[in-house]
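Hi team,

Below is the intake form for Glucan endo-1,3-beta-D-glucosidase from Rehmannia glutinosa. Please confirm the fields before the structure is written into the shared record.

FORM ID: S-0412
PROTEIN: Glucan endo-1,3-beta-D-glucosidase
ORGANISM: Rehmannia glutinosa
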Amino acid sequence: MLEDSSFGPSSLPLRYVTINFPCLMWELDSCFGYVQEVESLGINYGQVGNNLPQPERVLQLLRSLKVTKARIYDTNPQILTAFANSNVELIVTVENAMLSTLTDPNQAYQWVYTHIRPYIPATRITGIAVGNELFTGGGGDTTLVTYLVPAMVSIHAALVRLGLNQYIQISTPNSLAVLEESFPPSAGSFRPELNSIMPQYLQFLAATKAPFWINAYPYFAYKDDPSKIPLDYVLFNPNPGMVDPNTKLRYDNMLYAQVDAVIFAMAKMGFGGLEVRVSETGWPSRGDENEIGASLENAAIYNRNLMRRQLRNEGTPLRPNMKLEIYVFALFNEDMKPGPTSERNYGLFQPDGTMAYNVGLSALSSTTSSTSSASISLTSNATPVIFLFEFF
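The structure came back. Fields below:
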């Protein structure tokens, strides 16, 4: 990820009471029958663990939380079957290793016929992520990006042949490192080495009316330069913010600045009308000694503030009237993920069904009236449930 020295939402006074009683994730619906659905909020459902609950339990969790969008990192038939006849929209993934094969239209047709068609319409597959972070060498192979657009074209042609293209969008999640410049947002530009292939990808998105997906993690920018980047700015907490000197737009959090930097970068290539969606964002609740900022407190604040924004259907300063669709990373802590400790601690839930930390996944009103509204946060280890009362 690139460092971003851009500067988060005004917070409101809170009063709270703590009521101690256990509530596992599969019991949430009976504990709280009034959790509010957020149309623009999704969640990443990773499976790199040996102790994760069965997909049927996961579906029960998502229903309890009123989350209706999820992304998986494969086309796991057990998940696709379990999610049939639910209201959960799924983005599935073509693994990086499959890209070269799927440039062949016949192979792409066979893949769609085998991995997608049997589950539709019962399972609501609405997106196909072709690879992950390919422009920046996702998976350690910098050559895979050459297969990206041909594979997307072949998969789209297969969807057209099967009459599924009107229901399913095709894109690829990108690391923020595709940007050469990200601050201020109006300076956003793609890395020069992408100048030949990026326009082909953007042209495909424009032709198929698909969004640009970005994996945006303000955490990484803060970890790499905590002395210069205000923590409140990356956590959506109250802060002075920053004003883009070119547009005069004010940014009170880094995530929105990163998204707008991507919009400006696309516009400079002639594709300013494309929608940007955040395919991943999150904050680790634990990290190694050198992973500054990785803590339960910061993870809870980041995700809680993010979800409050989502309940208000906010857009970015550049596109205030277009709600920003965001997929939180991740649903579970995944114990088999390689890398530093933080990689195994992005989950909102522990695999045993308890919350990893307090996070507001519930009914904060998006109104701006003077009436109060309630927000629910659940703690780990199935202990306190904290009711937060906010006054506007």
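SUMMARY LINE: The CA atoms of residues 274 and 388 lie 37 Å apart.

Thanks, M.
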